[in-house]
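User: I've been going back and forth on whether these two constructs are worth ordering. Before I decide, could you fold them both?

Assistant: Sure. I'll take them in the order you sent them. The first construct and its structure tokens:
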Amino acid sequence: MRDENQSDHLKQLLARLQDRSAVIGIVGLGYVGLPLALRYAAEGFRVLGIDIDAAKVATLNRGASHIAHIQADTIQSARAHGFSASTEFARASEADALIICVPTPLSPYREPDLSYVLGTADALLPHMRAGQILSLESTTYPGTTEEELRPRLEARGFTVGQDVFLVFSPEREDPGNPDFHTRTIPKVCGGSTGACLDAGLALYRQAIDTVVPVSSTRAAELTKLLENIHRAVNIGLVNEMKIIADRMGIDIHEVIRAAATKPFGFTPYYPGPGLGGHCIPIDPFYLTWKARQYGLHTRFIELAGEINSDMPHWVIGKLADALNARGRSIMGSRVLVLGIAYKKDVEDMRESPSVALMELLRDKGAQVDYSDPHVPVFPPMREHRFDLASVDLTPNAIASYDVVLVATAHSAFDYALIRQYANLIVDTRGVYLDRLPHVVKA
């Protein structure tokens, strides 16, 4: 850090972070913001959470959790250390650090939708004061922090790097992953100025084991996109390989297991019925959109997106062929979808390909039900409507369906029981490794 260049505001902020007297404000208490809030609370900071969802705020303030893999006792411990939640943006003035953790979805035209980020920033700005640091964690295109947030701060009369400090530090949460936690996942951080970077490093080093500085907010923004595009492209590749292997009569999961024995030069990725979650189906298109401003066409990224987006249709085609081979059509068939969360062992349904499968089946005249121990009732969603509750997997229930579609491979499912009683299984996750006459790989 450059002591000779530090303003009084920076010195005071660094001191308050170091002695843990700083108040940490987390804006957005979902899958990213809540774990971060709990992490700071565990380090002894007073944490103020701000969220527009009054029900979520009330749940947290009574010591309960709205996220399945975060236990209530963790919330209660944080409450005992001073964590509180509020819907009032005016309380932002109480915080020394404000960390924005809100969604960045796509518009209907698959362009970046920054309405949550900009709406949040505009709600915070009237209550900001000198001496604060503002950090954006929401995944976005390179240039967002400098082109959108910095001008808003300057329009309020702040000098960025002197009396307020602006950084971008992308979230890296993986909900439900037992091997990685907020504290142990290295944190990338870029600042608008050198002083901003100093403030950002001091902020995150209080709660995260390893903080990785980069030269700018734009570099930090692109880092996050590269991470997710890397996954999207490789998943697109293995999904295309699955289609090729299927046409050749080869089990792609057997091939992946064999290739993964190579100790160098190969990283296994696994096919599925499509992409889900808040990152992989969305984030690559943020770069695609931004690249067009530079006259560039992201062919590789867009091709992977096309392949991954088409996978639900390919799965339904396999299911239709399997039913047809048994003298049935999709119309009128009873289909049980196993797992509607976007990944195993969590309740998160954002962009879940299972929902796309259910809609395709319903549109083709199937009677669709689902079973998911993590989602007891189909929740209200902006774009999807199903008035359904999870089916208990009893032998009679399983046997009552024409086909069981394995869409999300939750550990809680009794796959041996399903194999024993199902009339037909369409397996999109490689759950059943043996060749069985009533199991179709898709």
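The second construct, handled the same way:
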Amino acid sequence: MSWQVVRFDDAAPQAWRNGGGVTRELLVWPNAEDWLVRLSVAEIERDGPFSAFAGVDRWFAVLSGAGVLLGNPVQTVRRDDGPINFAGESAPDCHLINGATRDLNLMIRRDRATGWLRVLHSAEVVLTGRLETSASPTAVLRGVFSVGGGELRSLASEVVVLPPMSMAWQATTSAAVQASFRAVTPDTRNFEFHCVVSNSGEQEA
């Protein structure tokens, strides 16, 4: 399957119910009403608790701003840190360190899927292509989010250009074809995510 590109500016902002910020959904799979995988960019404008998401595993990374103090015991998350992982039902308190932040969020329904979010530390890197479960997957989702922009290349010679603040992703039903990513600007934030969705009862880490 070809890569799909989603731009941050094309995603409509959704205000939080508590008024603490806005979220832009870049990926909700398979649909917005009953998603199993959700990737979004949030802009946190003031202190307050995160919303509770029962049965969801979350990954959180700071894209810009001074960072946040999250949870109890407190974890300090700054721009140069890797993503942190926590249970969605914990609904941690969030305190801004010095003004508003922009953050990347990955959410996965743990009863139907496994996955991860990681920062790409090199300007050019080969993306993970292996299937991370022995069960028969419903779908394998993977992608790259780039703050500064870059270029994806697959072994099939497909070239996908990512503008700044955009994501490229694909969904398959088997192990994904190997691909590489090259950042336009080496010192900007780039992330890879990988999710394996299985039929209920078949999930295996």
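Notes on the second construct follow. The chain is about 0% helix and 50% strand. Residues 201-205 have pLDDT under 50 and may be disordered.
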